[in-house]
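Example 3.
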Amino acid sequence: GESVGLHLPTLSVQEGDNSIINCAYSNSASDYFIWYKQESGKGPQFIIDIRSNMDKRQGQRVTVLLNKTVKHLSLQIAATQPGDSAVYFCAESYYNQGGKLIFGQGTELSVKP
Amino acid sequence: DAGVTQSPTHLIKTRGQHVTLRCSPISGHKSVSWYQQVLGQGPQFIFQYYEKEERGRGNFPDRFSARQFPNYSSELNVNALLLGDSALYLCASSLEVFSNQPQHFGDGTRLSIL
């Protein structure tokens, strides 16, 4: 069925450490993946995306890795800061579904000072 | 540049009433999508509109409807409200309707049904 799941519902890290948030997706036809950050009382904020023809993409302090063999996605945040505390969602879509995004449950990241 | 704007930010209704939620996309974006987010879960897709036409519909009852206007803004209508309709309703916009383009979200309308 259609689902995107996260391995860990909560993640607690020390300020300055690196964070890794994982995501499993079920549809092998998915060709586009996005990571969103959602702070309390706000809508999801776009972080980074990756297309299925790529294995890795880097942004500012963030890296997304895609392993199509095992249908796994991860978000790495370098030097995690208190402002990174939020719920992180991965989402997938595929071409014949237009722009419909399928979201997972989310992982809450808590950064300890 | 302004992001996606939604109104109202909060709304309280009673069972059986109807509600209209509004969304203005980012300037230049032609596609608008609506999502429902229940507390503790990820957003669930409701509709996508592009050039005033419905391009996708999620697994929601016919009580939910939407439309897109010539200026690309959009309305989501929900009739015969149920307690289970209480949720955050999110609007997202993107340049076109195809996948492989990021959707950018507004901060949503928090709908509470009493």
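The CA atoms of residues 46 and 89 of chain B lie 10 Å apart. The interface with chain A takes residues 4, 31, 33, 35, 40-45, 48, 50, 55-56, 58, 90, 92, 94, 97-108 of chain B (CB under 8 Å).
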